[in-house]
Amino acid sequence: MIEFITQPWSWYFSGFMIALIMVILLFWGKSFGFSANLRTMCTMAGAGKSVKFFDFDWKTQQWNLMFLVGSIIGGYIAANFLSSPSALDLSSHTINDLKALGISFNGGVNPDELFSSAALAHPKTWIILLTGGLLVGFGSRYAGGCTSGHAISGLSNLQIPSLIAVIGFFIGGLTMTYIVMPLLF
């Protein structure tokens, strides 16, 4: 059984499971989105006393908090007990593109040039990570949700603002990949 779980699964299984979860959430009138949990946690900490945005009944979002906790626990179990020891199977074109940017591929998920202890000694790494984190956080709030919330939940609910947000995410991703990243590396 463990061999079956640890092997790479096909992309269509994930798509089927996402669709199944969305149908279940739509049936119960819920809307999926991880970034909503940040608002809920701020509300639980008492931010609603000073900022109107955080003044709502957070108990209506308990199901989403449980989904977040389950995702964290599931990720921990998968990474520590169910992951395959073999190297990540990455496209040779992607490996060549990374080499052209000065980023080596060692078979792991994250490049050592950005996500190792040695990389944190360089101010450039801190600037890239902090700027990226701020842009993602601001963008999620400004767009009214994160990429997964808009692309999965918003589009399945046929929301035009989600379509506009997803188009913006793609434009931003392409701009980052083909214009900004080559300048940084």
Count of discrete alpha- or pi-helical segments spanning 4 or more residues:
9
Strand content: under 5%
Give a quick account of the main beta sheet: strands, pairing sense, barrel closure: none
Mean of all residue-level pLDDT scores: 86
Residue stretches low in confidence (pLDDT < 50, at least 5 long) are: none
| Structural class determined from secondary elements | mainly alpha
Beta strands, count:
0
Overall morphology = globular
User: Approximately how much helix is present in the residues?
Assistant: 55-70%
How large, in whole angstroms, is the Cα Rg?
19 Å
**What letter string, H or E per element, gives the SSE order?**
HHHHHHHHH
Q: Give the termini distance in whole angstroms.
A: 43 Å
Would you kindly provide a written description of the structure presented here, covering whatever features stand out?
The protein is an all-alpha fold and 185 residues long. It has a domain at 1-83. Helix content is 65%, strand content 0%. It has nine helices and no strands. The N and C termini lie far apart (43 Å). The model has no long low-confidence stretch (mean pLDDT 86).
